[in-house]
Design goal:
mainly alpha, 6 helices, 0% strand
Length: 181
């Protein structure tokens, strides 16, 4: 133990022998000191950040990547929300679209969706709405079904893709283990 600890006990004993009323003040001061030290220790551990340049570069790259992903997500989400407001989805289509957005299954087809499929769908809906839905309702509904079918297929690909990746990894691991033996 530390010599300061024993010195504090000795001084408290001496003060207690001389003036007993001072022990109450010593009790409150020591309690306050312990609480302050516990708070300080907790706050130091919580806010730890390395100061190295490499760590700062990694954090910067991470923030940049998150910002780009959020921008992509909000762009597609805005387009799909516009279609929902202007035309609407059936309950089954709404569920597929919600899963598609939640799982961000558009990873491989982001460019196709954002540059082609969704803008064409929006343009078709705007043209149909300007005609007051005369003669084009069936065409919009058909294309919307096709769009949700594409989304559903992408959801399936993403789900089976992760399973295939795991199975492939396990096969490679098994093969490497056989080579080692």
């Amino acid at each position: 133990m530390n010599i300061l600890f024993f010195l504090a006990i000795f001084l408290t004993s001496v003060v207690g022998l001389i003036e007993q009323r001072a022990l109450v003040w010593i009790l409150f001061l020591s309690l306050f000191g312990m609480l302050y030290m516990a708070w300080e220790k907790k706050s130091k551990n919580k806010n730890f950040t390395p100061k190295s340049a490499d760590f700062k570069e990694l954090e910067k790259a991470k923030k940049s990547r998150i910002k780009v992903e959020d921008k992509k997500h909000s762009y597609i989400d805005d387009q799909i929300a516009y279609i929902r407001e202007e035309w609407g989805y059936t309950k089954a289509q709404e569920k597929i679209v919600a899963d598609f957005l939640e799982k961000r299954a558009y990873g491989t087809m982001y460019n196709k969706l954002s540059a082609s499929l969704l803008p064409q769908m929006i343009l078709l809906i705007e043209n149909c709405n300007s005609k007051e839905k005369k003669g084009c309702k069936r065409e919009v509904s058909t294309r919307l079904r096709e769009l949700t079918t594409v989304m559903k297929d992408e959801l399936k690909k993403k789900k089976t893709g992760t399973q295939e990746n795991f199975e492939t990894t396990m096969e490679v691991y098994d093969y490497l283990m056989q080579e080692v033996k």
